[in-house]
Amino acid sequence: MRFWLMAGALALALVAGSATAQQAPVAAGPRLDPKDTGALRRVSAEVLFWSQAQRDKNFPAMETIFPSHVVKAGRKVRALPQGKPLGVPDADVDAFIAAQNVAGILVLQDGRVRLERYARGYGPEGRYTSFSVAKSFTSTLVGAAIEDGYIKSTEEPVTKYIPELKGSGYDGVTIAQLLTMTSGVKWNEDYTDPKSDVARMFLEPTPAGEDPTVAYMRKLPSEAKPGTRWVYKTGETNLIGILVIRATGKPLANYLSEKVWKRFGMERDAFWSINPAGNEVSGCCLSISLRDYARMGQFVLEGGKGVVPPGWFGLATASHADIGLPGSGYGYQWWTYPEGRFGARGIFGQSVTIDPKRHMVVAISGAWPKATDPELSKARMAFLEKLFAAGE
Asked: What separation, in Å, do the N-terminal and C-terminal C-alpha atoms of the chain show?
């Protein structure tokens, strides 16, 4: 089930719609026509079943396959100075890279590079897909919209910004409950089930002029009191993107460029895949360089001063929902771990993990042979523990 919970993010989001923004985004030349929903469905579904050779080739080049908007970097780049090499034997790093099909791993401590390695034809000049790591980026834009006054509070009702949801299961649901996926709205994300919400959302026609995500999700009933039950819902992450676009009047790519990429000194342009409505897929599908994934972790670690409200990341990365795993939980689109750690993660081995106590950020891009795998996850966590211990 977890495979399809996570993997559904890409396929669902690529065919979901969102609101039309008032500001024209910076566009990258489309490869697939975003209006060709049949082709998008076919190719996005095929992503889950690419061969290892296809994953190695395509994960660093998704913007050449899917239509995208550009997240423009600024002229001033934040330096990542070299630090003292982390005391982890090269043989251990090599073994981890080989076992996990890692394309790149970078460890920052106090903003300095203590480990940086590439493999599988990837390098510092490239970009790599995020999959659901993007959810944490979208959450950050909610914080930015609050700081800018576009959104008053996470306690506001979702229906204030998406009024089409009035009279649906989202009545009384707050932005915070959308962020934590605790709306109480009934949802089935089993992608193997043709009657699941994910599958039906693809198939059901959308009335002319209506947003496909909103049109479908407003039909869903409530099954629990808001705030009482966590259920992973990619559709709700897509709603967060719609909410930010409507509140700010800006495409997500432009807003991310304005608030983070240019201000924090990201090194390279990023690409955010768009859906048939021409809006960014807020639940997945960013393509970012390894160093900029690490810079994003550093941005969060430093608190995002001036971009998000004071204390935002402390709130966003706290555990707000019980996910059924001891010591772990879910925040505002961030996964929470033992010892105060937290992170963003996506299928096929993507992750950004942050240890505030040690001032460390670990960014990993890769191409697991499976979308998710308990043994690979366990081995990755064990290696992360080794890296954090070396940072003592």
From this structure: 37
